[in-house]
Amino acid sequence: MKESIKVAAIGGGHGLSTMLRGLKNHVDDITAIVTVADDGGGSGVLREELGILPPGDIRSCILALANTEPTMQELLDYRFKEGSLTGQSFGNLFLAAMNGISPSFDAAVRRMGDVLAITGKVLPVTTSDVHLEAEFENGARTLGESKIFRAKKLQNARIKKMRLVPENPPALPESLEAIAAADLIIIGPGSLYTSIIPNFLVDGVGEAVAKSKAVKIYVMNIMTQDGETDDCTGFDHVQAILQHAPGTIDVCVANNEPIVGSVLVPYEEEGVRPIVLEREKIEALGIRVDEYPLVAAYRYIRHNPDRLADAILRSYHLTIGR
To answer: Which pTM was predicted?
Structure first.
């Protein structure tokens, strides 16, 4: 039997969609609140050519929550291999077409979710046309989500602060309503500076999460991220979120399963390592740390969706004393 709780999940990218894929088997009332600052890849092309908000992260979350036949799932995940559409996802084009027949982008997202009979709903955090700016510890800045990786390499400095341009765009009202109604707010997993923090740069989102009486769980990434969180510890991740959005984390759910073997080799070649948690420093901030074995390691190191969903719900019940 599924849990009768309201969940608001905040983030973007592969991390959020992985978590949603497991969570939908345990909870019906899920609202995914997704960043729209991406300007690279197929999403960037559609953003530039059609003037729509980037569909990629939203598409991934819709597909994660979808109840579709395998053929439909395969079709929506399909990427064209030649011609002017090379690299473009059919799911992105589907959402772009839905946007063309809808009065607004958020209406298009809702209608795509209806067509695919998703569990819960997916919302853009804002419908404003925003771009992401990173400021590094040496004072340098770069504008554009797709440029941050290369800029960090060139600067050889940690990211100090993130901004949206224009600053403080209005949140989609439904996103704020979902946060206010939630029993459980989940932050992440996903790219710290380009998938998670951008949501808290939207006007009112951080304040709504801090004000909420829900249990607020941050899911720690398993690995550092090349060109974004090189050499950052778990404590560094938590501190970065709280710097941009104070009061938004009650519990940190983290992996404690050792990662060994050949799957680590390509990561080590890029300087990517399992995150060192620094549990005591996180707990000194008043945040409880719950550790579980969460790894799915085949070709890539990822969270196991079902283990992660189970861990989140166990931590939720532990927090409310049930």
So the answer is: 0.95
